[in-house]
């Protein structure tokens, strides 16, 4: 009795396998060797389909970005932009490794450019000038991919709460920082920041500002001024 024929390896299958591996074990687990092992082939067999690890990661990003939801036809441009950005954020919840992959990417692939073009197109469809759209895209920054990087961000995990003496010292030395932390803890019983709420707050704040500038006829030339010493 003959065994079932082996399923052929393709670029799509290599990338899907890498995504599944990253979903389960994280992006660091993805290598040409580990993906080849999952496919039960030698690593060299993958080079027929991807140029190397950088191309593999780019393909993984493309596969997810191409799934970002489009805005419903006829939707207001603010809602359309908001929906696309929050759709990108939803994918981060499904694929936590995606943020690291995007942050470390060095080239804009066709799928990445297509998403950026579609997002810019939502502004344009609402009559927003390309001048303002340019500045708006920069202001959104990484938020178009669903995340907002912060300096000195740390993961608290299951760290024990600070002892009373440390808290007292912090309150004397950094009273406003402590007050913010206390207000956040009071708002969120878990004691952690509500990252989704904070993300949406900033996104809505930016969109409201973009609309106000659009209605006022804003142009970059009207605010540009030389810096001291330039």
TrEMBL record:
Residues 31-50 bind DNA. GO terms for molecular function: DNA-binding transcription factor activity; transcription cis-regulatory region binding. Residues 8-68 form the HTH tetR-type domain. SUPFAM superfamilies: Homeodomain-like, Tetracyclin repressor-like, C-terminal domain. This is HTH tetR-type domain-containing protein. GO terms for biological process: negative regulation of DNA-templated transcription. Keywords: DNA-binding, Transcription, Transcription regulation. It holds the Pfam family TetR_C_1.
């Amino acid at each position: 009795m003959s065994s079932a024929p082996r399923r052929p390896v393709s670029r799509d299958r290599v990338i899907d396998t890498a995504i599944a591996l990253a979903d389960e074990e994280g992006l660091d687990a993805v290598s040409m060797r580990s993906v080849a092992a999952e496919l039960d082939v030698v690593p060299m067999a993958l080079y027929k389909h991807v140029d190397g690890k950088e191309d593999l990661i780019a393909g993984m990003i493309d596969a997810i970005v191409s799934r970002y939801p489009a805005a419903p036809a006829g939707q207001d441009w603010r809602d359309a932009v908001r929906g696309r950005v929050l759709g990108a954020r939803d994918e981060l919840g499904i694929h936590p490794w995606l943020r690291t992959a995007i942050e470390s990417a060095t080239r804009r692939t066709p799928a990445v450019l297509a998403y950026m073009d579609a997002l810019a197109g939502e502004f344009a469809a609402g009559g927003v000038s390309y001048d303002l759209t340019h500045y708006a895209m920069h202001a959104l920054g990484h938020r178009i991919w669903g995340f907002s990087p912060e300096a000195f961000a740390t993961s608290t995990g299951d760290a024990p709460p600070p002892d009373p003496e440390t808290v007292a010292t912090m309150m004397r030395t950094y009273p406003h920082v402590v007050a913010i932390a206390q207000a956040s803890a009071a708002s969120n019983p878990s004691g952690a920041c509500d990252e989704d709420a904070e993300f949406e707050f900033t996104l809505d704040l930016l969109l409201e500002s973009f609309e106000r500038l659009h209605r006022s006829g804003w142009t970059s030339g009207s605010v540009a001024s030389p810096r001291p010493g330039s």
